[in-house]
Amino acid sequence: MKEAIRIYILEKAKQLFIKQGYRQSTMAEIAEASGVSKPTLYRYFAGKEDLIRSVAEELEAFLGREVFSILERKAPFKEKFQAFIERTFALIMENRELYRLAALEYWSGGKIFHEKEAFIEEFSQAKKVRYDKVRAFVREGQKEGVLREELSDTLMTFMIMAVFTEFFHLVVLLTPASGFRPEEVGRQVYSALEEGLFRR
Questions:
Q1: Is 198 helix (H, G, I), strand (E, B) or coil?
Q2: What CA–CA distance (Å, rounded) separates 148 from 131?
Q3: How far apart are CA 87 and CA 182, in angstroms?
Q4: Contact, 55 vs 63, CB < 8 A?
């Protein structure tokens, strides 16, 4: 029951943050939107920082379940690679407003990010976990003879991660109305990476 209430409050907070902005929203408004008293709200969340952190953690967990788990499937390498690329871009596009919110206020240098050393450490650790998973996947592709063996696995990993970072900035941070179709972006990015990284 308590977890259900916590999830409900977080959903209402996300809706409010997206509608009027994180910094413009107050704990009183979140309590009202959730149908709970302020004391009850504070029993679940210590403040707005706790709420935005929970949003970011939820997105990280969601991405891990939906995307990075693909790399561990027992399937042909090319099939996993394509699914990994296309699913990642589709999720970012489909949840653009939430990613934009978390990026601006938590991940990419917002006030909270700079003021909380623990947040920075947590962000760095999460990024390292993603990097290690992609690098292990790249090595798998080289071992199977799918990816080019003469290229550095480190370099290929950075190339793949850089594509995501730049696309993330373009779609999430700069323009909510990019006009990109998720499935088409995923296909084009996969095609470009395949052309440069795969053996012929």
A1: strand
A2: 19
A3: 9
A4: no
Beta bridge partners of 198: 147
pLDDT digits (tens, 9 = 90+) for 12-59: 999 999 999 888 999 999 999 999 999 999 999 999 888 988 888 888
Give the whole-angstrom CA distance, residue 16 versus residue 25. Answer: 7
Q: Where are the domains of the chain?
A: 1-45, 48-197
Are 108 and 139 in contact, with CB atoms under 8 Å apart?
A: no
The tokens describing 39, both together, are 């004391």
CB-CB contact of 37 with 2 (8 Å): no
Q: Which helix (H) or strand (E) holds 77?
A: helix 77-94
**Does residue 94 have a pLDDT over 90?**
no
Burial of 5 (0-12, 13-18, 19+ CB in 10 A): middle
Integer Cα distance of 99 and 43 in angstroms? 26
Q: Under CATH, to which class is 1-45 assigned?
A: mainly alpha
| Residue 50 identity | D
| Type of residue numbered 106 | Y
Do residues 154 and 135 lie in contact, with contact meaning Cβ atoms separated by under 8 Å? Answer: yes
Q: Are 157 and 151 in contact (CB under 8 A)?
A: no
**Separation CA 9–CA 48 (nearest Å):** 12
Q: Which CATH superfamily is domain 48-197 in?
A: Tetracycline Repressor, domain 2 (1.10.357.10)
Q: How confident is the model at residue 2 (pLDDT cuts 50, 70, 90)?
A: confident
CB 146 within 8 A of CB 155: no
